[in-house]
TrEMBL record:
<feature type="transmembrane region" description="Helical">
    <location>
        <begin position="148"/>
        <end position="166"/>
    </location>
</feature>
<keyword id="KW-1133">Transmembrane helix</keyword>
<feature type="transmembrane region" description="Helical">
    <location>
        <begin position="121"/>
        <end position="142"/>
    </location>
</feature>
<protein>
    <recommendedName>
        <fullName>Dolichyl-phosphate-mannose-protein mannosyltransferase</fullName>
    </recommendedName>
</protein>
<feature type="transmembrane region" description="Helical">
    <location>
        <begin position="301"/>
        <end position="321"/>
    </location>
</feature>
<feature type="transmembrane region" description="Helical">
    <location>
        <begin position="175"/>
        <end position="191"/>
    </location>
</feature>
<feature type="transmembrane region" description="Helical">
    <location>
        <begin position="97"/>
        <end position="114"/>
    </location>
</feature>
<feature type="transmembrane region" description="Helical">
    <location>
        <begin position="387"/>
        <end position="405"/>
    </location>
</feature>
<feature type="transmembrane region" description="Helical">
    <location>
        <begin position="197"/>
        <end position="216"/>
    </location>
</feature>
<keyword id="KW-0472">Membrane</keyword>
<feature type="transmembrane region" description="Helical">
    <location>
        <begin position="412"/>
        <end position="431"/>
    </location>
</feature>
<feature type="transmembrane region" description="Helical">
    <location>
        <begin position="342"/>
        <end position="367"/>
    </location>
</feature>
<feature type="transmembrane region" description="Helical">
    <location>
        <begin position="223"/>
        <end position="241"/>
    </location>
</feature>
<keyword id="KW-0812">Transmembrane</keyword>
């Protein structure tokens, strides 16, 4: 029955299945990272009229919080999230909608990116592409938030670039390509609105069009110049925004670090060649997720090293041989204009090269950050797997094109090795993350840390309280212990987290008018005398009990004549 269906229909069905598989994975294990929390917090403050900013306590007057402009990221994610929060009943749903739209956009971009190659690939090639990307953990390492949205927008621009470069003569005579070229730059700028790292990639699009137009297609020169001019104006406007509104642009005007010994402004520039020893194994991670746990195996570290080296050598060999033969085939045909497959390979190589080159340049120039959240406690750009996402996708796509080419560029044995590599990637995905997805997809979607039965109800009650108390202004949210879930809810509501130690260190508490404070108390742990006296003095009253979260929320007011008690 299936064999009678046309390949065009089967490819479309495979595309739809890939979208559903990625959506199911997101539904089963939604991500809400610290980066996304912070940007969503700034979106809440934007809706409250404070711009894309983060609320901070003002110890000189608690009733007048300080709103610091967000400078760690461009404002694109915060703008989109602010729009969604006006329509969505919950932050998690808004986050999922953002991810679902990003995933659909990314796969749609690649559907159109592969379209000019359909005649040079096996009829079932699109189905293989999308089923691999729908099921595999790699190359989609940590695919969420601004990484996903930026990659989707950039891939859309790349699809338009390949469309302009491969248009048949009749289409070129009918249209000059201005609309496609300008839209290409618009999508590239959209990626810049999500992540600073896409600045060079965005300019790669019109500059590549200009180079090919100048060398081979004079008709493309004016559209390319128009696209380059538009992108320059848009990025210039974004830089003005970063300078005038955000104050600076992290990763551009200063080094990202959490040095414990000195501020980031004193980071010593240099040539730190040893940082390249931390280089992420890009060729390996293009097919095998960094979630694979080798520690359970005897001599796990050695096994991982052997696997990384073997896969990297195999992938490098396949790509080198395949691309060399692709170039040779184009030359034998006597064509100055590259073939369509070769054009795609060149665009993907440029993408991967720019992505890796930027990370290498930053890692060489700046000292490593001393952080507690990264393996080994020392972080630099080339060590962070998710930063290589454009390179991962490019490498996996190049290998897929070589393996699925209708005019083979690889010997039969090497094609078999390539297919075996892709099959191993899928098999490991099916027995790790995809198995967990299948187990969780039938459950009610919640934050990934909401795992205990009954907890979602408490989460909804907490979120409801934090949305309704003193709407339009931040609430001081005190605590005498760390509860990650409660902190997330408070920050996403735009409130200000205060530890008890900070409260007692700034005495007396100063405020020009009464300030509402919510206090998170752990009922399982007796409060120390200082906390007890603080709550008694300010007449704290129980507001909400959350047994599943291990929290009890009290409410109190800090009045202008109030003073804190020294512990």
């Amino acid at each position: 029955m299936i064999s009678k269906l046309p390949w065009n229909l089967l490819n479309r069905l495979a595309f739809g299945l890939a979208v559903l598989l990625r959506w199911a994975h997101e539904l089963a294990m939604p991500q809400l990272t610290r980066d996304m929390q912070t940007q969503t917090e700034s979106a809440v403050n934007l809706l409250r009229g404070h711009g894309v900013s983060l609320a901070r306590v003002n110890w000189q007057d608690l009733s007048q919080p300080v709103f610091e402009p967000l400078n760690l990221w461009p404002p694109g994610y915060a703008w989109l999230m602010a729009c969604l929060l006006q329509l969505s009943p919950s932050v998690l749903l808004a986050t999922q909608i953002m991810h679902w739209a990003g995933l659909l956009g990314l796969l749609l971009a690649w559907w159109y990116l592969l379209k000019p190659l359909r005649g040079t690939l096996a009829p079932w090639a699109p189905a293989a592409f999308f089923l691999f990307w729908g099921l595999s953990n790699a190359p989609f390492h940590l695919l969420f938030g601004t990484d996903l949205l930026a990659l989707a927008l950039y891939s859309g621009g790349l699809a338009l670039l390949l469309h302009l470069l491969t248009r048949p003569a009749a289409a070129r005579r009918k249209s000059g390509g201005y609309a496609a070229a300008l839209l290409m730059s618009g999508l590239g700028f959209g990626a810049c609105l999500m992540r600073f790292a896409y600045y060079p990639l965005a300019f790669f699009l019109p500059l590549t069009l200009l180079i090919f137009g100048w060398r081979w297609r004079p008709a493309l020169r004016r559209p390319a110049l128009a696209a380059l001019g538009l992108l320059t104006l848009l990025v210039g406007g974004l830089l003005v925004y970063q300078a005038r509104v955000a104050g600076d642009a992290y990763y551009i005007t200063q080094f990202y670090t959490q040095l414990t010994t000195e501020p980031s402004t004193r980071a010593t520039l240099g040539l730190y060649w040893h940082h390249l020893l931390q280089l992420d194994p890009v060729l390996y991670h293009s097919f095998f997720s960094n979630e694979l746990d080798y520690s359970r195996l005897p001599q796990g570290a050695v096994v991982r090293t052997v696997a990384v080296v073997a896969v990297s050598v195999l992938v490098a060999g396949l790509l080198s041989l395949g691309l060399t033969r692709e170039v040779g085939a184009a030359r034998r045909r006597g064509r100055l204009w590259p073939t369509r497959r070769l054009l795609l390979h060149l665009l993907l190589l440029g993408t991967a090269g720019l992505c890796a080159g930027l990370l290498v340049a930053l890692s060489l120039r700046y000292p490593a950050a001393l952080v507690g959240w990264f393996a080994g406690g020392v972080w630099t750009y080339v060590a962070d797997t998710r930063y290589f996402l454009p390179a991962f996708l490019s490498v996996s796509a190049m290998l897929l094109v070589l393996v699925l080419a209708r005019s083979p560029r690889l010997p039969v044995g090497l094609r078999g090795l390539g297919l075996g590599l892709l099959g191993a990637s899928l098999l490991l995905s099916l027995v790790t993350r995809d198995r967990r997805t299948a187990q969780l997809v039938v459950q009610q979607p919640n934050f990934s840390m909401d795992q205990r039965p009954g907890q979602p109800a408490d989460v909804r009650r907490l979120d409801s309280l934090l949305r309704t108390v003193q709407p339009g202004a931040p609430v001081l949210f005190g605590r005498n212990y760390y509860n990650k879930r409660v902190e997330i809810a408070a920050r996403l509501a735009g409130h200000i987290i205060l530890d008890a130690d900070s409260l007692f260190a700034h005495q007396p508490l100063r405020t020009s008018r009464p300030v509402l404070m919510l206090f998170d108390l752990n009922p399982a742990t007796p409060a120390n005398p200082a906390v007890t006296e603080f709550l008694r003095r300010h007449h704290a009253q129980p507001r909400l009990g959350l047994p599943a979260l291990g929290a009890q929320i009290l409410s109190l007011q800090i009045r202008p004549d109030s003073t804190a008690v020294t512990p």
